[in-house]
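Example record

The entry below shows one chain as it appears in the dataset: sequence first, then structure tokens.
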Amino acid sequence: NMKHACVFLADGFEEIEGLTVVDILRRAGVEVTTVSVKEDKAVTGRSDITVFADKTFGETDFSDTDLLVLPGGMPGTTNLRDYAPLTELLQRFHREEKLLAAICAAPMVLGGMGFLKGRKATIYPGMEEHLVGAEASTDRVVTDGHITTSRGMGTAIAFSLSLTEQLLGKEKAEEIRTSIVYGHN
């Protein structure tokens, strides 16, 4: 049975973070939907790269989704945080303990919603106060229960490989890691 992930794109998102997740998960055989959190599918990232999301939020059926991913970047992160339909969806996934992941500044969204209380988590350096109630880590990628957080563009591949492993297992993650010439070879 195919795994399905949704990566949310807001104006001002960090392009490498958002698209690295899409690329690596698709290579691994995960069905990935990029979801715009506005009426329009054209989303412009923080470095002025415009991408076309697969669907708008309103067009997306999340019933068979296994993982929700929040890329960082500013003001992408605050645009995600301020989009009520997304925060309602995050609440539902959190209650059901379905996989949630956020990178760079975006763990502040999960922290602000109280999801990180009593968990280990990480965030972009200097933003640790947004990890409300969490034990802040400087690890590149931290998974505690159903929540994975990571630090920034430079950790995007490690973050994506962790998500690959969580969805499809260690062997598939290792296969992708080797194929993209990441880390030791």
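Notes for this example: The radius of gyration is 15 Å. DSSP finds six helices and eleven strands in the chain.
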